[in-house]
Amino acid sequence: MIAGDKLSNEFQISRSPALLKKQWIEFPNSSKGSSYSRSKMFRSEQKKNFNSRKSLKRSSPEDVNQLDALEDYRPYFTWWVSTAQTLVLLLSLLCYGFGPVGFGRHTHSGQVMVKTLSLQQVEWEEPASFWLGPRAADLIHLGAKFAPCMRRDARIARAIAASARRERDTACCIRNDDSGCVQSSKADCSNSISTWKKWTSGDSGPGGRISGSVCGLDPKFCEAPRSIAPHEWPDDITKWPICRKASGDGSAAAGRAGHAAEHMACEVIAHPCCIGVHGQCVITTREHCEFVKGYFHEEASLCSQVSCLDDVCGMLPFMRRRRPDQLYRAWTSLFVHAGLLHLAITLALQWLIMRDLEKMAGPVRVAFVYLGSGVVGNMASALFDPYRAEVGPGGSHFGLLACLIVETLHEWPRLAHPRRVMAKLLSYTLLLLLAGLLPWVDNFAHIFGFITGFLVSYALLPFVAIGPYDRARKVVLVWVCAVSATGLLCLLVALFYAAPAYECTVCAYFNCLPLAPDMCASQDVHLRQPDGV
Asked: Is the domain of 320 the same as that of 333?
């Protein structure tokens, strides 16, 4: 708030709720329209050039006194968001550790016990990162922008449905030496050492079922939930629930005494394991699952009984099973970083740009620019490049750069070298756009964050208006920019749900340039499947 005794009598101070509580200073006797914002940088520029002949045409002593009278803010938001981002990364590294470092993909290999009860050489690949941080799957678990966790993905849903159709034709493969059993297809069950126990019309299961059998699971030997009308288990094993309590007749001891079916008496040596970031599920041993960094479900017998996307996404559980709804990732990803180098760049930009900007505009306005630009940028990234997990406040930083450009445009008549200032800002913007071609940095977030920051800055930053005509023009501009920024966010959200872009080759190159082999490869895990049972 500017005290009236600090200004000339010809200045009038007014506040208007319609202007989003912006502070206006009117010059009623002036017909020439110009405006400038409360910028410490521009204030020092004014003072330095005030005595020059050129600046005398653009400034007045009252202008300089007015800028001196304006209050500076403390950068509370800059301190808070930087501290939060640092703590999130440190806790992430403490809980998950460092992932593989480098460019391209990293291969893991080793001998593990697989479902054949033999040691096999297993290899799997995952993306490496040069940012010195957690694995890609861990970043998704921490809240990275990842479209399959934000809304139902048709491609992943089709892949899960195809897996369920294949699982419908599986049965329990029982080892002849009583060493165990595993759910598998007929092709994966060796006839020489195993017996594939498949129900048929001539040898049906309980209630005449021909779908099955399932190792360790049978509606006849389950007490909770029981298969009774109207909740009878269907003749489709992919729709069977997890048995929470088995009856005594279905125990291994009863099987050895000859009172239980073979598929209930054998020791189940493999259970569902969720692998990768696209909801892939395989039936394997615990040792194999832990080796490939998967999520082992010992309580389940079939992949259709687990929701791998719940394991991949983490965060809050989906409101409906297998219906991702974590739209809030557009906000949480602003606080997650790909590694120590990524965080160092973020802190440097926020210290050099956002801190001084917040001293001028205040924490509330800067928070709107920062969070608004970041959220809109992440929504654009989720729309155009849905299968790449992205983290960091890149869109927010471009919103801050746009805010500085808006400041420069407002102060253009009063700056001694406005073209030089604008050239520097545009150079920084171009440099960061080139950095957006690296993995884990998102150019879609940069572009749309810049647009949003430009609009929000015009709508929220304070101005000095000269004359009623200039004030009316600024009011219209404020509302146009505010409505445009809100409309852009609503449009991106609507397109994200109604018309998602599953295939866009050009979009991939705009977001990540393959400067090294496999540098921009898929972030999913590539697993070499072990041999059959």
From this structure: no
